[in-house]
Amino acid sequence: MVDALPSVAFIGAGSMGGAILQGLVASGIPVDGGITATNRTAAKAAELAGLPGVRSIALEEQPDGNAIAAGSRIVVVGVKPAMVPDLLVEIAPQLRDDAIVVSIAAGVTLATFAANLGEGVSVLRSMPNTPATVGRAVTGLAAGAGVTDEERALVRRLFETVGSVIDVPEEQIDPLSTISGSGPAYVFLLIEEFTKAAIGKGFAEAEARLMAEQTFIGATRLLEASGEDPAELRRRVTSPKGTTERAIAVLQGAELDGLFARATDAALARARELAAGV
Description:
The protein is an alpha/beta fold. The chain has helices spanning 15-27, 42-49, 65-69, 84-91, 110-117, 149-160, 173-181, 183-200, 205-226, 230-237, 243-253, 256-275, and strands spanning 5-11, 31-39, 54-58, 74-77, 100-103, 122-127, 137-143, 163-167. It has two domains: 5-173, 3-Layer(aba) Sandwich (Rossmann fold); 183-274, ProC C-terminal domain-like (ProC C-terminal domain-like fold). Residues 170-274 form the Pyrroline-5-carboxylate reductase dimerisation domain.
């Protein structure tokens, strides 16, 4: 376990970058050299300015802010994907010899980073998801050529401040995005439909939402606390010839396995289109 991190910069500390930054601060892990964050506007920079150990820079007030941030050991790139190549060209001359560049920009490949930063720069590509904002992310992490075990461990520790980390080869980043990246939306959709079903049974909307949302939250907490396989927990709720068994039969009759496979296949196809610029 890494006990401390070197200096960290978040270039483009928007929703995701800001969530990881706040998770890092909340973790209490020492950051030698401090944390630097850049955002385009003063209003956005002000949201992070009060965090302990954070230097928050507004580019509209300090145009060379990205160059300043690029002097950190770990440089997290969180700008919009279309902006990444120009940003890399901007910061490349300011990077330290031992810099570790980490992408949280969806769809931008390690090859793009290598082409714009030059040879010899350690780069990792990550895919966190939105539960990072509550410290429960799943982050896929793919290391580029030449990344050392020490560098990978530092970046892994950074993302562990907001949840769990899975090391994957780069070709698995897009498939991972269809599960954990898009996954929260699938869960929210299921809760929406469960709520509608409750309303259809005569419950008021507030009651229906309470039942649906807290059932999902309670079930996932039980799953986590028990350490059991979800199929086993399902069996324990499903009494033979009972009401749950009848409902499960209907759901399984809808061939949910094929439905989820098709949904994630569609997401993967779109991820590959986006990577190709379509």
